[in-house]
Specification:
Elements lengths: L1 E13 L3 H12 L4 E4 L8 H4 L4 E2 L8 H11 L6 H9 L1 H10 L14 E2 L9 E2 L6 H14 L4 E4 L3 E7 L5 E7 L5 E11 L20 H8 L4 E2 L4 E8 L6 E2 L3 H4 L3 E3 L7 H4 L8 H15 L4 E4 L5 H7 L1 H9 L9 E10 L2 E3 L11 E3 L4 E2 L11 H20 L9 E3 L9 H18 L6 H18 L8 H22 L20 E5 L6 E4 L12
Parallel strand pairs: 1-2, 1-9, 2-6, 9-17, 16-18
Antiparallel strand pairs: 1-19, 3-5, 4-5, 7-8, 8-9, 10-16, 10-20, 11-12, 11-15, 13-14, 14-15, 20-21
Length: 539
């Protein structure tokens, strides 16, 4: 089928989260024309729901070296130390850049930026905005600035279906469906994937509906390498009662909240010496085992050591949500359990976000540069989103060579099948349920093997390698493809490391290696110089 080219830009950014918007703003400052494509409203994405804040070593007792060591320790030996060192070293300048955009961080009584403590941090170093609504406030400021920037075009309600290449196989554009359901191509000199994660492949997730891994799969189909797909972080404390999953920020535990099971027993210190502030992978599994032990659906987050006035002021979103859902915060506690939260793996890239395909870049949650290792340190995600775009923009401009391509249309083969909406909904629902059972907190070879057979059957019926112009169908194809690749990687990694917990292989690896997936190529290990793997015992 023929698709006409509708417009050409210097750069197309797919995604409107914090990292994508910073890229767009910094490129626009340097007189590059940028088109931001976003699947739903420009504000809809994981950035909006980020409660905690940004990890930055600002206090007198802190340092970049301490922050780096905490990052490496949480990453369980898989962290790329050079990448982590550079990101942490530029954390303060990244924060100053955000402040220059007009973002005002919460301050302490001494009129300094207030710093709170979160899991696996050795000191308080998490800056926040609006109490527990950092992502919301930061996103709003960036969106407002982007909307006023003449060099930036924002296309809302636009689904990016596929990356497009020329006869030399260089990536030069994107096939899209716009808000009017028209299909056409957009050309650009460079494409930046900032599409976020893929929590929606699971039944229970903190991610919004748009997070189905589209950008990751689109890049894979275009020949980009993917890395460490089996590394998926579950957030330990999510409220499910009377509504959609709602994340209870780690800062509640950082400032004294304690976990108890439904029998009223405090249990966190039985699993790790840091108790409630253990690394997320350890604490999530601890809660999982407590749920099994007590045959319950949740544990309770006890906040009785807070005064109600302080809690309401410090955590306004959590307080109001609990009230709306009739949770008796100061009597029973907040009922919580783990949910899929952050995609640590993604498109393999270097510090600047350059993928292995020329003119293809990635940034934010969809990118895998080795910063987070095998388990992301709390609030390092917004740190990466704040800092990494500056590396990307600098390198992109350094390499920028205008493409004189005069292509006016593309011929693309499409999937000829028609799919019933109710069948698509049922398959998606079953996929999420089965992924949660097989690819969740606890994994085994037998379950993973069965799941791979199930995913193979979906491949036969859905033909994920063939493009569909039906957005719901293409979204499902992307979810199936990514689930298959995750399952393959989880089977291949026959040891436990960070968030990847193989109940049948509890041993640590002899050497920490990245696991890389490429289209039409066998999975392969990538050996680098890492530290000795670090993990904590989980009963």
């Amino acid at each position: 089928m023929r698709f006409n080219v509708a417009a050409k830009y210097d750069v197309i950014v797919i995604g409107s989260g914090i990292s994508g918007l910073i890229c767009a703003l910094e490129l626009a400052k340097r007189n590059k024309t940028v088109c931001v494509l976003t699947k739903e409203a420009v504000t809809e994405g994981s950035s909006l729901y980020a409660q905690g804040g940004i990890a930055v070593p600002l206090s007198e007792g802190d340092s970049a070296e301490k922050h780096l060591l905490d990052t490496i320790k949480a990453g369980s030996g898989l962290t790329d130390i050079n990448v982590a060192r550079e990101i942490v070293a530029h954390s303060v300048s990244g924060l100053e850049s955000l402040i220059s955009y007009g973002i005002k961080f919460d301050s302490s009584l001494q009129d300094k930026i207030h710093l709170t403590k979160e899991a696996a941090h050795s000191v308080s170093r998490v800056c926040h905005v609006g109490g527990d609504a950092s992502g919301k406030y930061i996103t709003k400021v960036l969106v407002d600035r982007a909307c006023r920037e003449p060099n930036i075009s924002i296309s809302q309600g636009t689904f990016a279906l596929a990356l497009l290449t020329d006869k030399k196989e260089s990536i030069i554009g994107v096939l899209i469906e716009d808000v009017t359901r028209e299909h056409y191509a957009l050309l650009a000199n460079d494409i930046v994937i900032a599409s976020g994660g893929a929590g929606q492949i699971f039944e229970n997730t903190t991610n919004p509906k748009v997070c189905t891994g589209d950008g990751i799969v689109m890049s894979y189909q275009a020949g980009a390498a993917l890395q460490d797909l089996e590394m998926i972080q579950f957030h330990p404390t999510v409220l499910f009662d009377n509504g959609d999953p709602f994340l209870i920020t780690e800062a509640v535990r950082g400032e004294g909240g304690r976990l108890k099971n439904i029998k009223g027993e405090y249990f966190a210190n039985q699993y790790h010496e840091l108790g409630e502030l253990a690394p997320r992978d350890v604490l999530s599994r601890a809660i999982f085992f407590e749920l099994e032990k007590t045959n319950s659906k949740h544990v309770l987050l006890d906040i009785t050591n807070f005064s109600e006035d302080y809690f309401k002021f410090r955590f306004p979103s959590v307080y109001q949500t609990c009230l709306d859902r009739r949770v008796e915060l100061f009597k029973t506690g907040i009922p919580v359990s783990p949910a899929a939260h952050y995609f640590i793996g993604g498109i393999k890239c270097d510090l600047s976000g350059a993928a292995n395909r020329e003119h293809l870049w990635c940034v934010g949650e969809c990118a895998s540069n080795g910063f987070h290792g095998a388990n992301r340190l709390a609030s390092n995600s917004l740190l990466e989103c704040m800092v990494a775009p500056h590396f990307l923009v600098s390198k992109l401009l350094e390499d920028f060579k205008p493409n004189p391509n005069n292509i006016t249309y593309f011929e693309i083969d499409l999937d000829p099948k028609e799919y019933n909406d109710s069948i698509i909904f049922r398959i998606a629902s079953d996929l999420k349920k089965n992924n949660s059972s097989a690819l969740g907190l606890i994994r085994t070879k037998s379950v993973l093997s069965q799941h791979l057979n199930y995913l193979n059957s979906l491949f036969e019926s859905l033909s994920p390698d063939k493009l569909s112009l039906n957005c719901q169908v293409q979204e499902l194809k992307n979810m199936v493809t990514l689930s298959f690749l995750i399952c393959q990687a989880a089977l291949k990694r026959e040891h436990s490391l960070g968030v990847h917990y193989r109940q049948d292989f509890l041993n640590l690896p002899d050497e920490c290696k990245h696991l890389v997936s490429c289209k039409n190529t066998e999975l392969y290990w990538l050996s680098q110089t890492f530290l000795t793997p670090v993990t904590a015992n989980t009963k």
